[in-house]
Structure formats: structure tokens, C-alpha cells
Amino acid sequence: MTKAAELDAHTRRRHLLVATKIGLFAKVLVDVPGLPPLDYRIPDDLLVAVGDLVVVPLGSRRVAGIVATLANAADCEDKRLKCISAVLHASSPLNAEWLALTKFAAIYYLRGWGEAALPAIPTALRRMPTPQQEKRIAKIRDAMPIPDRSQESAIEAPTLNAEQSAAVNAVLSMSGFQAWLLFGVTGSGKTEVYLHLIKTILERDPEAQVLLLVPEINLTPQLVDRVKRRFPHEAVAALNSEYTDNQRASAWLGVKEGRSRILVGTRMAIFAEFRKIALILVDEEHDLSYKANDGLRYNARDLAVWRASKLECPVVLGSATPSLESWCRMKTGGYKLLSLTHRAVNRAELPEVKLISPPIKGSTRMVSDAAATAIEACLTSGRQVLVFLNRRGYAPVLSCPACGWVSACPHCSVFMVYHKREKALICHHCGARHSVPEACPSCGNVDILPRGTGTERIEEELGLLFPERTVLRIDRDSAAKKHAAEEAFQKVHRGEVDILVGTQMVAKGHDFQRVGLVVVLNPDAQILSPSVRAKERLFFTLMQVAGRAGRCGDRGEVLIQTRFPEEPLFAALAAQDYPMFADETLEERRESGCVPFVYQALLTVEAEHLSEAMSFLEQAATIASQLAPPEVFIYDPVPMALVKVMNRERAQLLVESSVRPILHRFLTVWNQVLKTLPRPSSASVCLEVDPSET
Ligand code: ADP
Ligand code: ZN
Ligand code: ZN
Predict the structure, then answer these.
(1) pLDDT tens digit string along 77-116?
(2) pTM for this one?
(3) In the 8-state DSSP scheme, what is residue 560?
(4) What is the rounded average pLDDT of the residues 6-11?
(5) CB under 6 Å to ligand 1: residues?
(6) Residue of 156, 192, 552, 578 best suited for mutating to test ligand 1, as the one with most atoms within 8 Å of CB
(7) In the chain, fewer beta carbons within 10 Å around the N or the C end?
(8) The dihedral of CA 475, 480, 482, 488: what is its sign?
């Protein structure tokens, strides 16, 4: 018997003893909305412990559940209870730390404990016990992470520079819980800081484990390789929503059983069960992919801080452009700042940012003469150019100048985007796809025109401007096939591409060594957006895109084509001064009482007809104003800016307060009442805490 298995057997016997004394009942969590933990009888022939995965009868079904507590007969309402059918022995019981985490998440995000806990466990481990399932578990165990010693001879860790050492020493010198904000420009060596922290923490305590959270797009094989190369003796585990059930289960078990001491994962990894986490790292902590946009709607970064506080261990949030929430907590809420002020590789200087005007209105061109000249100069010097435009397709809309017809999506309140290469009109919200009409469907005019610009059109324009050069487009369309994006990036790295055109996909993570110039086309739509967070996101994106220029060698250049050169965020960008941007923006937010100075929750209803959604929300608002204490503000229900998506019409109701506990108390009561409120049969209702879109 291994040490781990021995321990588990011990825990099981101990719990069993307790169960025998207090009566053989259990409260079991199931993943059914609205159901509290359910009472079951433990049959005489079963050994059941708190945290066990079990199978229980529920109505006519059998479902997976988790034993939350063992109960005395007196605590169970109905003495003719059904029995637990089976215990899933593929793994040992879930531990108390994990149960507390999922319980907290359920309470905080206003869902049932079972709804928070069960989906966190890989489905492959939740299946009914059958001979087939046993084979599957054996396979999963065979695929558990192992040390990758082939990497052993690889590169040694660089010696840290003074700022990096100061950061590492600061974190290591404190015991107990502390949240650290590691603020450092792209390339300043944040990842090196993480790797050094991991090394020391693992050496200090042979049982310690570390969780490294990364955004969806950053969990590349390269990053996992970098970690494996540095820790050739560790069974590094990775978790990612793209992994198969079995892969997830293997990683999960590796971490749970303490074989893997390092877990690198996307937001779902925050719910992994560990034996002993001693450090949590959140890379690119401002990234939106930490927020789940369905189910529990949790924020993995926020849960990471909570989890670390309960574990009394450090948590490091790293970013070149921290979220305003974290910056604010650093200024006033106890987070401590660690700064890396320059790029780690000496020769790499920060790029120079220049603002230029777009071509005059009415011009058919999108790339201005100034941009074209700069592109030519950069190419002549033998370096690559990155052209950034955050809009894919050829043109965002087709229209008829004669009658005003536009290519509206029949299912959504948006335009269908014209994709020239695919000869299709595609809705980016519902995926509807129509062929391109040869003449205006409304008046028969044959001269229907694309309006506005997407990456495909820029690719075409650059091809015409620079016929001798290789232009490559990278966006979700060009990268639709598996590995296509990876291959495209490799081409860029090998220098087979002169001009790279791309969306958000090229902004993050990639270390383009040869890019000397970044051209940003049309950031203006986001400047004009009424959304509070639009500018913040634009700023983050531009800082990241700008970070792609001049990673090595000569100083890079960034050109931004905009009609709003006086916009303050460009000044902060030109100075590459995030603190200036953050401090100014926070001051504005404080004065206008916006997030992060208030806490919010958003009730969203989708229905067949907007009127149904609105009338439900109006009732909800009436109830809310009766329940709400003076510190909670209830807004009026409103249709969403994008009302219709996939033939469903949407409206929402925002509530907010500057005192989080008061808001939470109100939400808990309101949520209970909302569950009893009759709703139109077609409606789906979602109450979201700390929404990212309001
Ligand atoms: P970030 O995570 O902040 O983007 P990285 O840790 O990836 O930065 O570092 C950027 C580059 O600089 C990497 O190639 C890394 O190997 C190198 N680097 C980081 N720290 C040092 C150091 N102290 N000495 C030499 N090279 C370093
Ligand atoms: Zn027409
Ligand atoms: Zn649509």
C-alpha cells in the first residue's frame, strides 16, 4: 500500500467510526438547481466518509453526489429515506479544504453547493460504477502526469535581476496569507519570478504544491514545456477546458493524490483538489477568461485570493496591466505591490508610440499614407510588421446605397459580417450563414457594397500596397482548423512572413522576436463606446499589442491610427504608463461611484419576447425595492444593448451597493424570492454576482 492509499484508508476508517456512532445517515450534494443537500441512509454494507463521491437515487434517476456531512437520525426529516446506492472508489474522499472552497463559491455566487461542487470534478470520475468504467479509471491512472526527464539537460534558470530578486524575496520572507500584485511590463520577467518562487516553495516543504493559473489563450504547450524543463523531477500537471474528460481526470488525480506538485491550468483549475497548496500564482490576472460566463459564473482570480487566505499562503497576481479592481486593492485594500520596471533582456527597449490620422473620410483605403511609409521602412530594414484590427471578416456589413438595405441577421439584432473568401454573410453571434446576394434583396440594385473594414479587407489592401511581400492573416477564421494558428505563428517566428494581420489572437502571449513595427487600425469604436469598461479594455489590449514590438534588438515603434489623438488613454499609452492610466481612471470611477468602488449583481432574463423578459424583471424590481436596505440601489430593468441573440430577446436589471456584505445579504433573500416568482415558460433567468459586462 502506498503512503497516500494508507492515509486514505485511515481517514475512511475514522469517518466510518464517527458515522457508526451518530447514526448511519448522510447529507449528499447533487447537481440540481434549487436542491439543498439531500438526506440518504447509509446501507450496512457500505463504508461512507465525508467527501466521498457516491451514487444516489433521485426520482427515477441515479445521479452522482458528494457526501457533505454525516448526520444523526434525529437530523434527518424523513426516516424512510432511500439508501445511497454506491460509493465511487476511484479516488479518496474530497478533503475539507476543497469542500469549504466549493461551499463558499456556492454561497458567494448564489448557487446550490452541489451546483458548485459536482461540475468541478472531471466527469470521467463521476460515472456509475460498471466494469467498463473500471477499465476507464485504469486508463486514466495510467495517463497520470509523470516527471519528464527528457527535459533534464535543458537550459538553466537565469540569475534574477535586482527587481526580480526583490520580488521573490519579499514573497518568501512573509509567512501566512498575503496577496501580492506583481506589476511588470511584458517581457520584464514575471514568469521567471513565478518559476523561482515555485522552486523555493517546493524545496522548503516536500509536501507543498503550487497552483499556476493562466488565461485560456496562454496555456500553450510552450508554457507547460517551460515549466517542465525547469522542474524535470516533478510530474507537472495541466488542466484546460480543451482537454478530454480522461485527460482532465488524470491531471486531477495526479494533483489530488499529491504526485503532481505543480498544476498549470486555466480558470477551472482553481477548483482542483490539492493535498497542500503552499502558493497560488495568477498570471495575467486582468484577463477576462478568469470569469466563467455560464454555470456558476465565478471569477477564478477572486477565488484564488479567497482560497489563499483560508490556506494562509501567499497569492501572486501578475500583470503588465492589472485589473482596476486589483490596482484599487493594492492602493487601499492590503495587496502589496511588486514592480518590475524594465524588460529582463537588456537590449529590449520599450517601443515608441505615435498617433496618426486615418485616411480622410470617403477614402476607400484603410491604411493611411503615413502608416504605409512606416511599414515600407520597417520591411526594408529587414523586420516584420504587425497590423492589428479587432474585427474579423471582410466588412462588418453589406449595404445597398440605393434603398438603405443592410445585411441584418434574422435571428439577432446585429449585422451579418461579409466574408469575401468564403463568399458568405456570417453572423458572429449565432453563426447563421447566408450566401452573398448578387443584388439587393429589397430593391434589386446590383451595386451592393461592403461598409467598414475587417482583417480580411486589410489583408487584401496590404497585398495590393506591398505586392512583393508575404502577408499573413491570423484570426479565428484563418485559425478555424486545429493547429492552424500554431502553424501560422511558427511561420512568423521562422521569418517566412513580412506582414502579419491579426485580431486579439495576436495581441497576447506571443513573443515575436522580429517585429519592429505595430500598426493599430481603428481603435475608435471602443473609445466611443458607452460601456464603463470599454476604454479600460482598449487600453489593456493596446498595451499588449504594443508589447509585441521590438522584443529584441532595435527599439520598436507603434503607430495608432485614430480620430481622437487627444484621448487621455493614448497619452498614458505613449508614456507606457499604466499607473498613470489606472490612477486617473480610478479617480474618475470614485467620483462617479462606479466599479470597483461599488459592488454589483446583474439579473438577466432571456425569453421569446422582450415583453416577457421585461415584465418578469419589473416584478423582480418591485420585490427588490421592497427588500432592499437603503445602501442597495436598484436600477430600472432595461433591454440589453444587443437585444436579440439566436431569436431570444434579452433584458437585464442591475443592483449595486458600496457595501459588499449588505449587498450579499440582500441578494441571498432576493434570490430566494425570485425562485418562487412565476416566469414565462420560455424564459431563462440568471443572477450573476460581480458581472463583468454591465
Ligand atoms: P514576462 O512573463 O514578464 O513576460 P518572462 O519571464 O517570460 O517575462 O521573461 C521574458 C524573457 O526574458 C524570457 O525570454 C526570459 O527567459 C528572459 N529573462 C527573464 N528574466 C531574466 C533574467 N534575470 N536574466 C536573463 N533573462 C531573463
Ligand atoms: Zn436596395
Ligand atoms: Zn445571428
Answers:
(1) 666 789 999 999 778 899 999 999 999 999 999 999 999 9
(2) 0.90
(3) E
(4) 58
(5) 158-161, 164, 184, 186-192, 344-345
(6) 192
(7) N
(8) negative
